[in-house]
Amino acid sequence: MNTLNSEAFVLFGQHILWSDMVGNLFGLAALALGWRRSIWTWPVQFLAGLILFGAFFGHLTGSAGKQAVVMVVALYGWWQWRRGQGQDEDGHIAVRFATWRERAAMAAAAAAGTVAVALLFTAYPTLSWDPWPDAYIFVGTVVAMYAQARGMVEFWFAWLLVDLVGVPLNFANGYAFSGFVYVIYGALVLWGMRDWWLRSRQAARPTLEGAPA
């Protein structure tokens, strides 16, 4: 693991670690696979979490804990998408907008979770250098992955909100490659959001009797 945490190269004055680079490249691939609604998004996300867990463990315990939770949610997502395969005409899962009740529940869980985790990080300073933004990213990531596991278009909106804090926080903590990747995440999120949005509208459109398929 020491080799994995060694410096790969320097980019624009930022020291890029192998673990940071490899883990985030897997995370980027997982997001792209999620856009395509491929079930392989979850094993790749699990592997990304495992690598980043090794990168953070020992000095950014809060971030390492986030990756442990990411791996658990990735297993949940794999299970959900295995159950949902074949729902759409192309053999993949069907996507949809969340109901207002589901949106309210996720927003409430995100708010309460962020406060609870931030207070934990504040009480134990060794868990995080930046308790509130780190808690926001921690909980936001879990909420986004949960929405993805349920095939909700809101998954993409949640990722955008995480990106807004994730980019500056990663640069500030010396994880430059994570910061660069989060910028690319933003572009992928916008494309993926458009694709899922259109698919959800198409799935919700009623088919008129006698109309051509």
UniProtKB/TrEMBL annotation:
Q: Where are the transmembrane segments?
A: 12-34, 46-79, 104-124, 136-162, 174-193
Annotated membrane topology: Multi-pass membrane protein
Major location category of this protein? membrane
> Short name of one Pfam family for this protein?
NMN_transporter
DNA damage keyword on record: no
Question: Would you tell me the Gene Ontology cellular component terms?
Answer: plasma membrane
Recorded GO terms, molecular function? nicotinamide riboside transmembrane transporter activity
**Which superkingdom is the protein from?**
Bacteria
Q: Which UniProt keywords apply?
A: Cell membrane, Membrane, Transmembrane, Transmembrane helix, Transport
Give the location in the cell: Cell membrane
The UniProt entry, under PANTHER family, shows: NICOTINAMIDE RIBOSIDE TRANSPORTER PNUC (PTHR36122:SF2)
Q: What family does this chain come from, according to its entry?
A: Belongs to the nicotinamide ribonucleoside (NR) uptake permease (TC 4.B.1) family.
Protein name from the UniProt record? Membrane protein
Tell me which species this is from. Answer: Streptomyces variegatus
- Name the lineage: Bacteria, Bacillati, Actinomycetota, Actinomycetes, Kitasatosporales
